[in-house]
Amino acid sequence: MYRERVFVTRKIPGNGLAMLREAGFEVDVSSKDRPLSKQELIKALRKKPYDAVLSLLTDQIDAEVFDAAPTVKIVANYAIGFNNIDLAEAKRRGVFVTNTPGGGADRVTEHTWGLILALTCRIVEGDNFVRRGKYKGWDPMIFHGIKLAGKTFGIIGTGRIGADVARRAARGFEMKVIYYDIVRNDALEKDFGAAFKRTAEEVLREADIVSIHVPLTKETTHLLGSERLAMMKRGAFLVNTSRGKVIDEAALVEALRTGKIAGAGLDVFEKEPKFAKGLTKLPNVVLTPHIASATKEARFDMARMAAENIIAALAGKTPPNAVQI
Ligand code: GLV
């Protein structure tokens, strides 16, 4: 009997791999505890006629990689985003591409709010101050943050995560919400009084806090460069839990240095795991290592979804989270 083969580009948490083995597949997991280079991935895929690849967001799956795996029927990305996969190439070859929305996406909302609160309540700066032995007693002059209620919260991108972040701004923090997206979100307007702006620029000009929730595409690459950053209100805050390349990081460092932007909360970076020069030296940033979806529940959920996608595709069905055929 034919046994389908699955290549997993890196060890993942949860029982997704057990599900694949229980389904009768031969499962090979990269033995390296790090992302594979493209050449390593190509070499690994050439070893056997694989039927499926379970990939991570750190794998660049392009034409050369597809060429090395002509028998593959599905690339199941273990991520919410899928900008690391060349969708046009997948389509040309009739390969399914899937992602793992759901639990992980909910967690991104919470992490986004964690960054916002850390910035506006100055939690990381205050923590450093205490640890460095600088706290000598209550002082009305130190660490003034900003109050959220009544301020304007600007969202760029109101898909599942953006809309959820907006909902918490309106409901949880009593903020006025404005948003821009290429499609209008009637529910957001009706349910939370969010105001649609016809351009991203309008959101940037009016918001006290801007949060980015767009997928990375050709159009959104450097969506926020020096020109658009200059449009932001002086003293506004910027948060990004989407993809690093959406912001020109060097331009952001400059805007943070001059105080044009009061602070930034970043979970993603333009050239991960590297940072633009000077970014990590700034006091007015809160930086996390691309962990916005990192809860045990979310990671397990993502493993289950990736496995279900592969099982469905190899049974000749359309996988539940197909973003491409
Ligand atoms: C994380 O960035 C993801 O896309 O899951």
TrEMBL record:
SUPFAM superfamilies: Formate/glycerate dehydrogenase catalytic domain-like (SSF52283), NAD(P)-binding Rossmann-fold domains (SSF51735). Residues 6-323 form the D-isomer specific 2-hydroxyacid dehydrogenase catalytic domain. Gene3D superfamilies: NAD(P)-binding Rossmann-like Domain. InterPro entries: D-isomer_2-hydroxyacid_DH, D-isomer_2_OHA_DH_cat_dom, D-isomer_DH_CS, D-isomer_DH_NAD-bd, NAD(P)-bd_dom_sf. One of its GO terms (molecular function) is glyoxylate reductase (NADPH) activity. PROSITE patterns: D_2_HYDROXYACID_DH_2, D_2_HYDROXYACID_DH_3. GO terms for cellular component: cytosol. Residues 114-292 form the D-isomer specific 2-hydroxyacid dehydrogenase NAD-binding domain. Keywords: NAD, Oxidoreductase. Belongs to the D-isomer specific 2-hydroxyacid dehydrogenase family. This is D-glycerate dehydrogenase. It comes from Candidatus Taylorbacteria bacterium RIFCSPHIGHO2_02_49_25.
